[in-house]
Amino acid sequence: MKRIALKIDVDTCRGTLLGVPALIDLLQRNDASGSFFFSLGPDTSGREARAFSPSRHYDFVTRLYGLFLPAPDIGARHADNMRQARDAGFEVAIHAWNRVRWESAVMTAENAWIEAEMAQAYRRYEDIFATPPHAHAAPGWRMNRHALRLTQRLGFCYASDCRGKFPFIPVIDGEIVLCPQLPTTLPTLDELLATGTPSVDQAIDRLVEESTRVGGDHVFTLRAELEGMQYSATLERLLVEWRCRGYQLVALRDLLVSRNITTLPRHTLGFAEIPGRTGSRLVQGRAFLQD
Fold first, then answer.
1. Structural domains for the chain
2. Which residues contact 11 (CB under 8 A, 6 or more apart)?
3. By C-alpha distance, which of 102, 49, 39 is closest to 74?
């Protein structure tokens, strides 16, 4: 059985309001499951306007949030859209409290700041869904050691905080964190477009080729603000291509069904540049204690 898990990052108010319902409809139409990872607090994405580039696909109004207008509270405004995903049978989990702030500050943040950000996201998730969160996916694949520790301490069943090749138990600076990582294994659409792929059709061809070339399960990360809006037709074509090649389109939690977590390999974590993105990202490294 070939599986591709769809990891859906929801970064902004606009993505939650418009992208999430559109993706629910698109995925149901194509008999696909997926996992929605929600930003739950203030939307300060407008502050990214100064660094706007072709790989950032926010519209003009969204870019004003947090720059000239007060940052809207995503969870307070659009909890119904989040619950709509849950009620439609999709997996829902935590992306961040403040996605922009996390991605820019986490690499050098103090432990107290990390704990406060993750606690706020945890409490807001409980308020919205009336149940504790079970999974976490860091914005921009950026974490530090203490944030990884908290994925275990907060009782998450798994996290998807890094790039890599297959599920594993993470080890950072010699410390084992007993919360499995389900890494993103495929390049994202915006990365391919930012690194010279001439068109979205050719980007789809590359994604299909890459998933077929490398066997096993895959995790593909998409965004409510991109594939859920501007490139929804592109995503639909990609899903059809994958299904025609015999892939099941699943949620991340499905990759752990019937797996004994204790038998997952232990791998180190490190940081590396990802083509199409600026700055270091968390990546799966070598097997722990490998010569």
1. 2-164+181-260 (3.20.20.370)
2. 39, 43, 45, 95, 99, 139, 223, 224, 225
3. 39
Length of the chain: 291
Q: How many CB atoms lie within 10 A of CB 64?
A: 14
Q: Where are the beta strands (DSSP E) in the chain?
A: 2-10, 35-39, 91-96, 135-136, 158-159, 169-172, 175-176, 218-223, 247-250, 266-273, 280-287
Average pLDDT over residues 154-175: 97
127 phi and psi, to 5 degrees? -65, -40
Q: Give me the residue label for tokens 């015999």.
A: 246
Mean pLDDT value of segment 222-228: 97
68 CB neighbour count, 10 Å cutoff: 9
Which of 130, 137, 150, 97 is closest to 252 using CA atoms? 137
Whether residue 117 is predicted with pLDDT greater than 80 in this model: the reply is: yes
Q: What is the pLDDT of residue 290?
A: 66
Residue 137 pLDDT exceeds 50: yes
Q: Which amino acid is it at 65?
A: Y
250 beta partners: 5
Residue 126, SS3?
helix
CA separation for the pair 96, 24 (Å, rounded)? 21
Q: Which of 51, 128, 47 is nearest to 94 (CA)?
A: 128
At 70, the pLDDT band (50, 70, 90 cuts) reads confident
Q: Examine the pLDDT at 55 and tell me if it is beyond 90.
A: no
- Give CA–CA dist 85/67, Å, rounded: 29
Cβ neighbour number for residue 110 with a 10 Å cutoff: 11
Does residue 46 register a pLDDT over 50?
yes
Distance of CA 41 to the CA centre of its chain: 16
DSSP 42: B
CA distance linking residue 183 with residue 220, whole number of Å: 9
- In a 13 Å sphere around the CA of 233, the CA atoms on its Cβ side amount to 3
Calpha distance 199→259 (Å, rounded): 38
